[in-house]
Amino acid sequence: MSQTITLYVDGACKGNPGLGGWGAYIITESEEHKICGGEAETTNNRMELTAAIEGVLFCPTDAKLIIWTDSNYVKQGITEWIHGWKKKNWKDVKNPDLWKKLDSVCQGREIEWNWIKGHSGHAGNEMADQLANQGAEEMLQSLKQNANGIDASKKKAEPDWLLNDPFGLDLADAEDLDSPDLLDDDALESEDAVIDTSVASSVEDLSADAEVITMQTTAKNSLHPQIVITPATVHAQGPRQLILDTETTGFYFQDGDRIIEVGAIEMINRKLTGGSIHIYINPKKLVGDSERIHGITDEFLQDKPLYADIADTLFEYLKGAEIIAHNATFDMNFLNMEFTRAGLPTLSSVCDVTDTLAMAKAKHPGQKNSLDALVRRYEIPQRDRTFHGALLDAEILSDVYLAMTGGQVAFDIDALTHSDDPYAQIARGAVQIQPPVILPSETELEEHANWVKQFEEKQGTPCLFVK
After folding, report:
1. What's the gap between Cα 208 and its chain centre?
2. Do 381 and 453 share a domain, yes or no?
3. Residues 313 and 377 in one domain
4. How many whole angstroms separate alpha carbon 415 and alpha carbon 239?
5. Does any domain span residue 330?
6. Phi and psi (nearest 5°) for 82?
7. Which residues are catalytic?
8. Which CATH number belongs to the domain containing residue 229 in this structure?
9. Cβ neighbours of residue 167 closer than 8 Å, sequence gap 6 or more
10. Are residues 380 and 452 in the same domain?
11. Judging by DSSP bridges, how do beta strands 228-230 and 271-280 pair with one another?
12. What is the separation of C-alpha 180 from the centre of its chain, rounded to a whole number of angstroms?
């Protein structure tokens, strides 16, 4: 081999699908290269794949490549799952064009694939992330210049959602049902949704999009990224739950340990809304040995805001919700301490708290009930937890909580039909009716049988809706 080249590749997407960008930070033995690009309508996964493809194509074919990506979807796809996809002739695989291209450009090369935790302060990964956002911004500017010529009339056909997600769980589009471990957040996309290929209907829409992109980029990449709040994509009515986790400098808030990261994701009526909040915080003390747990360094936290700077916004986001946490006493003690230091009420005084560790001990007495143990027990697809992260652990805990409480949904009509109108009321009364029995026609029975056959072929399991 003539030389060894290190690549950091990343993708970004405003919406999923939406405006996207890709970036590759390439370090040779003598110089550095930064390349990026974007697409008007794409998905996060496609941008992650494109970044890898373009990065590899940029390098000489005889060089040894060491590639770092924060997408387990890409890393495991190219090193493990792709062999099964080829054997099945790419059946039911999403993004087959890009997977085939990545496979092709990797042929005959010596490549070492590695995963790295995203947004953890690693300089190479952060640079690739900045390049990906730069690619998206450059694409947006190009679209603004050509906004009047965009054809916004075409839409992607809506799929049979019941065939793909019969239980209404909003399952992520796994590239292959034989590949259950789509581990990273980026894999949780829904390419089968109705996609409006129009980028904007006017210059004003594009300007609004530019502001959103700018806000998101600033939140991720500025010197003082205070709070990253992701708005909900699913709008539901009912009691608000926040699955929450924190990372700290140590175990003892009484001894001066501080919070360095907070992550929480929103759930309403047992349905994740897509909303979340994520913050890194400068604790004004060294992280010490805790770095071995969360991987967050003192250098990374140096330019992050103090807790007092973000306390008001975080308190407003959390208050009134039911906080769900694993070993909630630990998280709540730290949060109460931090909010008190900032001159605010304790969080436990304005929120109900559910401790999933206490739930697990009651449900599985005498057994291991750590988050990792529960993931194995409930056969939840595993993520890489070499380092703990607040938002990652919150996402894992949401799966664990739903699995532990399965079948325990309270059918509270008032909660499920909660209205923003304070004067709205629901009238109830006893109604005695004899519902008619409507039998299916022969044609309907035949269509149902065909649907069941398609379901069983796609899912590989017997269908519950046979009769």
Report:
1. 24
2. no
3. yes
4. 7
5. yes
6. -60, -30
7. 388
8. 3.30.420.10
9. none
10. no
11. antiparallel
12. 16
**Cα–Cα dist 302/9, whole Å:** 25
- On whether both 99 and 22 belong to a single domain, the answer is yes
Q: For residue 44, give the nearest of 211, 221, 190 by alpha carbon.
A: 190
CA nearest neighbour of 133 among 295, 265, 5, 18: 18
Q: Please report whether residue 170 resides in a domain.
A: no
Do 371 and 399 meet the contact criterion of CB atoms below 8 Å apart?
A: no
Binding site, annotated residues for Mg(2+)? 10, 48, 70, 129
Query: 406 lies in a domain?
Result: yes
Using one digit for the tens of pLDDT, what is the confidence trace for 199-238? 333 333 434 443 443 344 333 333 345 789 999 998 888 8
Annotated binding site for a divalent metal cation: 245, 247, 393
Same domain (yes/no): 442, 409: no
Residues whose CB falls within 8 Å of the CB of residue 352, separated by 6 or more in sequence, listed in order: 322, 323
User: Both tokens of residue 452?
Assistant: 């069941």
455 burial level (CB within 10 Å; 0-12, 13-18, 19+): buried
pLDDT in tens, 159-199: 555 555 554 444 444 333 334 333 333 333 333 333 332 33
Residue 19 sits in the same domain as residue 143: yes
- What is the C-alpha separation between 119 and 297, in angstroms, rounded? 12
SS3 (DSSP) at 370: coil
Distance CA 11, CA 51 (A): 6
Among candidate residues 109, 126, 150, the one where a domain is terminated: 150
Total domains in the chain come to 3
Q: What is the spatial distance between Cα 163 and Cα 47, in angstroms, rounded to a whole number?
A: 27
Residues 378 and 339 in one domain: yes
283: containing domain: 224-414
| 51: amino acid identity, one letter | A
Tell me the C-alpha distance between 21 and 19, whole Å: 7
| Alpha-carbon span 185 to 392, nearest angstrom | 8
Q: Is residue 208 part of a domain?
A: no
Distance CA 247, CA 297 (A): 12
Sign of CA dihedral 442, 448, 449, 450: positive
Whether pTM > 0.70 for this model: the answer is no
DSSP conformational letter for 178? T
Whether residue 355 is found in the same domain as residue 454: no
Three-state SS for 321? coil
